[in-house]
Each structure stands twice: as structure tokens, then as C-alpha cells.
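Example (one chain per record):
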Amino acid sequence: MELKTGNDSTVDSATLDNTTGDRTTGNNTSPNRVSSPPLQQLLGWIIDPVRYQVQGRQQYGDFFTANLSGLGPMVIISDPKMIQEIFSYDASKFDIGRGNTIIAPLLGMRNLLMLDGEAHRNKRKLLMPSFHGERLQTYCQQIEDIITNITQQWQPGKPFGMLTAMRQMSLEVIVQVVFGLREGDRYEQLKPLLRAWLHVLDSPLRASLIFFKFLQQDFGTWSPWGRIQERQRKLHELLQAEIDERRAVGDTGRSDILSLLMAARDENGQGMDDEELRTELLMLLLVGHETTAISMAWMFHQIYQNPAILDRLRQEIQSLGDKANPLAIAQLPYLTAVCQETLRMYPVAPLLFPRIPKEPITIAGQTFAAGTPLVSSIYLVHYREDLYPNPNEFRPERFLERQYSPSEYLPFGGGNRRCLGYALAQMEMKLALAHVVQRYEMLVTDTLPIKIHRRGFTLAPQTDVGMVVTSRRKAAPSVSAISARV
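Predicted structure:
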């Protein structure tokens, strides 16, 4: 990719209008501007987003102006000080929802990711209680049961794909804990349909559907976009049938997230309508299923190649004795550090969604005009040598030696747009980790370094993360069983 340095300290608003697509006007004074053709940049971004970003930082340092065909220019930032200033800025000074319109064809315009200002604050207040506090503990037994059911399928000597296994686990968590379905025809229909909907975007080639609008044509189920649309219609029908059934039955004291969302009311006593419920459920699926599965696959791939890490984990968990309830496990420092290091080294999203200032803004002495999309790079921050020495080394101890700020470690985003489900995702990772390392000896069969590649909106392993169980360890009591006793 050809890169060209500019000298102007202010980004020209005409050249950085995110609504105009390719850069066609202005005086081309954007700082650290990538000068290669926008289409070439977009292809590079689709095929290898990590390489695209790394090359930009190597050429320019802490920020550079990318111009992706059809998406328009954006400033990619990897300086934690600049990111902290953005996070600390008055959120009302930015548009963020309109920077997320790339996912509108999948989720519509009424979900949380698309909202700004008061509408975003109100919707977030409605959704937040379902994912935090005491609610988390009510989900632990279900999660533990799901983990047990998945891992019991692992047979000694029989290789399996850890990524596939973790996708099965994460999908069950979504269907059971979020959607509230555990059996019946609707449960059986929903799971393969959800997998098929997500599968359409599982490679860089298929992910191009997201970035090229002209490919988003519904020519029936023989066309890729037609298949996505058909599956979305069926998903909406199934979810609507479930919502209708629950509205007819009334409050049954259920604790799944769908039931809680149906019961949630804002300050004016208003709840979410059916369309909002459906789109929020699909949003939770899109951002919560694949991301957690990918992180867990990388996690097991690393720890079963590092005997010292594995031994230390087991010793820490065993030190709890009969106190190994979910909250105690969640607070274990080394286990937590292993999860943190996984999320640092393998962020599932390369970037945060753009923050678009409504008026000129000065960040770290650099002035950006109104309408300039400012995009924080999770990947580039997590691989900064000054923050994380030897960043390609999996070393959980770094999180015991130093506390990182929200702009230095940001796997779940930051500011007022931090991922709602981050606590649930971390609990799922920790329970799975504690369960598996106590029960299974395994070998990694994918011994060569696994490359990161694009899968839809995420960064995923290029392989299925092959592993094989060599033996089962002496059974430990389940977290849910211990929790019931304490």
C-alpha cells in the first residue's frame, strides 16, 4: 500500500465527509493520508485488516487517514492518550450511531448501536440491568450445564476443532440465557437458522457483502444476499412467535434476558415494541456469539501449549477448595489475567466504531474538522511495545504486574459505548476455563502458528484450532453444584 505524508495540522471537512463515500473534493490536506486508490485500500482492509493497520502505523505512527471506497475517509488512532481524550470528551459532541450504518442491513436502524444522544442513553438504561449484578449469578448454572454438555462430547484420542466446540457452547448460551429457549420445536429450528445466518459472512470473500453495497441484491435464495435476507425473515418470524406467546401468557417469573427486556420500562413507563425486541436480540447474537467463541478458542489454544500457565491455573483453582462458586472463580487473579491476555492478544474486533465530532475538535494538539470519523484501533493499541513488551508473547503475568487504563486495554470498547455484555462474556470465559482445565489433559494439533483472518466483522483464527483430549482428569464438582451448597 502506498502511503503519503501530509503537513496540514487540520483535517479538511470536505475531504472527510463520511456520508459522501470516496474522497472526491477538498484540498487533500488530510494528515498522514494514505494515497493509494480507495478501492485498493478497501480490498486491503477486507482481505487483511491487521496488515493494513500495521503498515499504516509503521509509516505514520499514532494516527493516519484511511480512505476506504464506499465508506469514506476515517482517521485510525493508536495513541492511548488521544483515545483517552476522545473517551473523556462530552459524548453529546459526537455522532456514533450514524457511523455504524454499515451493519444496518443486518440489524436495521432501531437497535442500540444505531442510536445517539438521549435515545441511546434511554435504551442503554433499559438493557443494562439484564447483564450485570445479581442477574449474572442467575445465569451461572445454565452456563455450567451448557459447558458440561459440550465438553462431555470430547472423546480421548479423537481430534476436534476447539473453535467449532466453542461456537456450539456460545450459541447455546445465546439461545438459552438470552432467548430463553431450551427445548421444543422453536428451539430446534432456531439454532441451525442462527448458525446459517452467521455462516454467510465467515470468510473475507463473503464478508465483502458488508462493504460493497452493489452486492446487497436479493435475487432469491441462490444469491448470497438473498440467502441472508431469507434467513433474517425466518429469524424474525421465529422470534416474533416467541414474543407473541410470552405476551399472551404474561409474566411467568422467567429470568432469561428476553423476558427481562420485555418487562423493562423507561422513566415514562414505556417498554420496547416487538421490532425493537427482535433487533436487539439479533444484535446480541451478532456481537456476542462469535466474539466469545473466538476468544475461548484462542484461550485454550494458548494455555495447552504452555504447561507452566496450565499448572498455575490449576493450583489457583484448587486453592479455593469448596469455595469454588462462580463469584470466587471470577475473582481469581491469575485466571482473570489469562482471560485478559487472551483478549489483548486476540481482539475480536480490529477497531471501535467511529466517533464523529459535530464540531471541530482538538485531540493531543491535532485539530480535526466536524464530520471527521475518529476510529480507535484496538489491535494497534494492544500491540504497542511501550505498553506490552514482547506483545506477540502470551504472558498473562503482565496483567498482574500493571493495571492498564481504559484507553490502553479496550477489548470491549470504551466510554459510553462499552459493550453491554462484557461481564457476561467474561463470566462465560472464566467458567469454561475453570471447568476444562480441571477435567481434561489436551494436546494442540494445530502446531503451526495460526493466522488471524477476517470473519465478517471479527478477527478469527484461520483454522478450526485443532485439539485432542489425551485423558480425563479426576472429576471436580461442578460450579453450579458448589454454588447450590454455599
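Caption: The first strand starts at residue 10 and ends at 11.
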